[in-house]
Amino acid sequence: MTPAPQPPAPRREPFEHREHGVPRPDPYRWMAGTTTEVLDHLAAERGFYDSSTAHLHSLVTTLRAEMGSRVPEADVSPPSRRPRCSYYNRQLAGSDYGQLVREINGPDPGSKPISLPDGASTDGFRNGPVTGENAEVLLDIDALADESGYLDVGLSIVSPDEDLLAYSVDTSGEEVFTLRFRDLRTGRDLEEVVGRSYYSGAWSADSSWFFYTVHDEAYRPYEVWRHRIGTPVEEDVLVLSEPDQHFEVQVRGTRTGDLVVLWSESNTTSECWVVDAHDVGRGPWSVGGRRHGVRYHAEHRRLPDGRQDLLVVTDDDAVELRLMTAPVPDGADQDHTAWTEARPASGSTRLLRADAFAAGVVLTLRDRGAQVLELVPHDDLAAAQGGGRVESDFPGGDVSLASSPLYDGGLVMVRDDAWLHPAACRAWELGTGALETVWRQEAPGYDPEQYVTERRTFPAPDGTGVPALVMRHRDTPLDGTAPALLYGYGSYEAVFEPEWDPALPSLLDRGMVYVFTHLRGGGEMGRRRYLDGKLAHKQHTFDDHIAVADGLAREGLVDGDRIATRGLSAGGLLQGAVLGQRPDRWRAVVAEVPFVDVVTTMFDAETPLTVTEWEEWGDPRRREEFDWMLAYSPYENLPPAGGRPDLLVTGAVHDPRVMVREPAKWVAALRATDPDWGPRCLFRVETGAGAHVGPSGRYGHLAYEAEVLAWVLDRLGVA
After folding, report:
1. Bridge partners of residue 412, in order along the sequence
2. Is 540 noted as a catalytic residue in this protein?
C-alpha cells in the first residue's frame, strides 16, 4: 500500500517579537521574502496539496463540466451608449477573456439602446454572439495573454471623441499595470507606453490628455499624472502627489465631460479636487478641503437654466451620509463652508452615491440590506422618490446603475443581480419612469425557479440581529438534515453584491445549503453596522458569523455537525478567527489568501498597504490597539490540539495585498501544534503568476472554484 503523503515540515528558527513588553514567538519569521528556501517550501506545499487532493480529480472534472455548461460559449454584455457608438464586451466560443466591441449608433441617438443585427429580439438587445458586419473589435483581450497564464485588464476607457482607447494590462497578478493607447481609426497602439500604473484614469475633453495614477513600492496609489497623446511619457506632468501614507489617490472623468475629479482617501478621511477638462492646466482645486474623520465625493451637474454645481455625498455629521451642493471651484481651493445641505441623512437608509443626468439625479441607496435606486428632481433633491424607485425583481437581489455615460440621454441602464438569478438590465426612462428589460444574462440549462433564497436573522451574543441570505434547492428541506456552507467577509464597509454564480447550483443540486452572512464590519446593513465591527469592536464580526452558524443548527435548519465556512482576504481573517475561537463549530474551513498574521503585519510599515490599513484595524504602536489585534490575530491564537476541523488555505506568491508569508506561517504553526491533525491542513499556493482572488479568465476561475467546492463536498461527506 502506498503511504499517505505527509505535509512539509519547515524548520523552526527561534525568534521573539517583544512590543509593549509582550513576547510573541515567531519561529517562521524566516518565511518573509522570496528566498530559494521559501520558494522551495511553497513548491512543496503545492505538491502536498496536489497529492492530497488527487482522489478528487474525478469530482473536480464533473464540477467543471457542470459549471461550464451554465456559461454560454458566446455571449455579449449590456451596451453602453455614447454619442457615436455603443460599446459592449463580447465572448466568443473558446474565449477566456473576450473582446471589447463597438457598433455605430442608429439614427435615433438619444433614447433607445442599440438593437444588434443577426437575430435581434424585440426587447432591443439580444443574447448571443455578434456576427453582424457593423461590429468593430477594439481590443481582443485574449490576444494580450502571454505565457504567464494570467491576465487582468486594469482599465479600458474610450476617449470623448471616440478615436482613442486607453487600456492597461497586468500579466503577473501583482497589480502593476502597463498602460497603452490605441488609435481606433487604425487599430494600432501608439508608441508611448506607461510602464507602471494603477486602476483609475480619465480623458481631457479634447481627447488629447489622459490622467492616470501610479502606485509606490508599497502598492499605494499616491500620484496622478497626465500624459499628452503623441509625446514621450518622460514628458508627462505630475498633477497631484499624496505624501500621507494613510491615503490613496484616484481619478475619474465626470458624465458632463467638463471636469476631471481627483480624490485622495483614507479609511476615515478624504479630499476631492477638480480640474477643468477643457483646459487641463486649470486646477486641481479642492472641493472642500480635508478634515480628519470626514469623507466626501463630488459629482458635477449642469442645471436646466445653464448653471452648474457639484453634488457632494459626505458623512460630515451624518453617519449614513447626506447630500450637499457646492460651487465648482474656479481659480482657488474652497473648504466645506461653501457647501449647502440639499438632502439630510436618513436614520436607517445609507446614501451611497449620487449620479447626475439632465433629467434628474439618481441616488443609490442601501435600504434594509438591499441596494435600490431613486430618482429625484434637480430642484428638489430632498424629495422622497420624486421620480420613481427601482428595486430588484429577484429574491435577495440588488440593483445598480450600469454604464450610462450620456448626461443628456433619456435612458439610463439599471442592472439587476442576484446569487441565483442570471442578471438582467432594464432601460429606465427618466422622463416617464418607464422600465423595459433590454438584456438578460444567458445561463444554458439553468432554471432559477428550482432554487429558493430567504433572508433570516439570528441573534448575536449581545442581542444584535445578524441577517443572512439562506439559499437552497427547493427540494432541499430546512429540517436539520442538510449540510451547509457559510460565506462571510465583514470588513471595510464592503458589500459583496449578489452576482449570478454558475458554480453555486453545483452545491445546491447536491443538497447543500449556502448561507451568505451580513456581518458587522461589512456594509450590507449600513454604516452604523460597519462602525460596530471595526477597530475595538472587531470581535463583533467574528461573533456574528458564529452566531449564524449556531442559529442554523439550534433552530434545526441544517445539520449542525456538517457546517463549513469560507472567506477571502479579510474574510480569510474571519475564517482564521472563528477557527481559533470555535473549532468545534465547523466540519471544514476554507481560508483564502487569509490576513492572519495581523499584529506583525500591522507593525511593518514597509509591507504593502499596511499604513493605509491602520484606520481599519488599528495601529499596534499604541498599546490599546495592539491589545485589540493580539486578542484575535489567528497566528497568535491557534485552536487547541485535537478536535480541529479540516482546513484548506490558499495563497499566491505575487499577491500584493496579503503577502504569501502570512498563510505559509499560519499553516506551519497550526501543523506544528497538532502533528496528528497536520495532514488534514492543505495549502494551495499559486507559485507562478496568480492574483489575490485566484486564477484569471472565466474558465480558469471556474476550474479553481471546482477544486475548492470539490474539497468542501468531500469534507462534508456529500456524495
Report:
1. 428
2. no
